[in-house]
Amino acid sequence: MKKVLIQAGAALLGALAGLPAVAGDPLQTPARMAARAPKAMLLALAQAGQRTVAVGERGIIVVRDGGAGAPWRQARVPVSVTLTGVAFADAANGWAVGHDGAILSTNDGGAQWTSRFDGKQANALMLADARAAVEKARAAGGNALADAENALGDIEAAAKFGPSRPLFGVWFGDARTGYAVGAYGQAFRTTDGGANWTSMGAGLPNPEGLHYNAVAGGPGGILAIAGEGGYVYRSTDGGTSWQRGETGYSGQLYGVMFTGRSMLAYGFGGHVFRSEDGGATWRETPAVTKKSLVGGAMQGSSIVLAAQDGALLRSEDDGASFRVLRQGDAVPTSSMLDVGGALLLSGIGGVREGGR
């Protein structure tokens, strides 16, 4: 999938740029401190009060206090796996997710991080879900048993490789309640700030084990997950149960966002879908780029989306149409963040200014 391909190439580019190599178990090896860390491949951005936080390859996390021109400094991180997502509930409390099922937390605005979860725990939770699904299907009878047994076999086989499955998205509604999602149907929830996690897999209608790429929350407590197959999953009970919505598209969706009046899902090849009924039905918005869309933000009542080549698209009509705000600069881009009206883009070479 797109994120995995970008991240694999990023590691090579980082090595060529002189970043130190990682030896040993990356879940047990702290990220190495390096002067070139701000120029690493940085895959996700978040705001912690007045601070900007970026995460990326080899466990690198950098923070910046202030606007353009302010220096970036590297944070202390206990793992050296690639980090793919980051979210903050407030100026102090944040979480990052990444490869090998890693989940980290911070309570000082991103200066120092603590390991909270990894792929070993993820495998155990998913195995428990799959075994419970087999028992449920066996009791019910019918054709579902074969599907459940096949799913269990897949998870058992994957677990033999250890904590190898990545997480891609994280979102917290407050300092205690949050959600993390990733490859092969991984979906987890915490209600104690990330100290403990439980699986949401049993409540998600995803028998194929499709990837989840992003998770977000919206008005009225609704949750949404976007992922593989063009599906958007929504929950209105805190992630206990989910409904799967079809956009009419069978490709990857890399992001989902709430605009105040509607929901948007966007992804591969410039596809954008809009729902006015909380994700029950979807309509495609006319495309203005063929590049994959990797980030979204609200600027007042306007919506801005970022493409993989650094292009920016703006909508003034709640996502019904878009226009090109900024042409791409051909620098591979993985995320976008609005900071006081200024747009930041992250990707190869670190974080760069994207304009307003």
What order do the SSEs take from the amino end to the carboxyl end, as H and E? HEEEEEEEEHHEEEEEEEEEEEEEEEEEEE
What is the approximate shape? globular
CATH class of the domain at 200-331: Mainly Beta
Helix content: 10-25%
Topology diagram in text:
Blueprint: H1 2-16, E1 42-48, E2 51-56, E3 61-65, E4 72-74, E5 83-88, E6 94-98, E7 103-106, E8 114-117, H2 119-140, H3 144-159, E9 167-172, E10 178-182, E11 187-190, E12 198-199, E13 212-217, E14 223-227, E15 231-235, E16 243-246, E17 253-258, E18 263-267, E19 272-275, E20 283-285, E21 293-299, E22 302-307, E23 312-315, E24 323-326, E25 333-339, E26 342-347, E27 350-355
Antiparallel strand pairs: 1-2, 2-3, 3-4, 5-6, 6-7, 7-8, 9-10, 10-11, 11-12, 13-14, 14-15, 15-16, 17-18, 18-19, 19-20, 21-22, 22-23, 23-24, 25-26, 26-27
Helix pairs in contact: 2-3
Explain the overall architecture.
With 356 residues, the protein is mainly beta. Among the domains are: 119-162; 200-331, Neuraminidase, CATH 2.120.10.10. Helices cover 15% and strands 38% of the residues. The strands form 7 sheets. It has a 4-stranded antiparallel beta sheet with strand order 1-2-3-4, with no helix packed on it. Strands 5-6-7-8 form a 4-stranded antiparallel beta sheet. Strands 9-10-11-12 form a 4-stranded antiparallel beta sheet. Strand 6 and strand 7 (103-106) form a beta hairpin. Helix 2 (119-140) runs antiparallel to helix 3 (144-159). The longest helix is centred in the middle third of the chain and has 22 residues, at 119-140. It starts with a helix and ends with a strand.
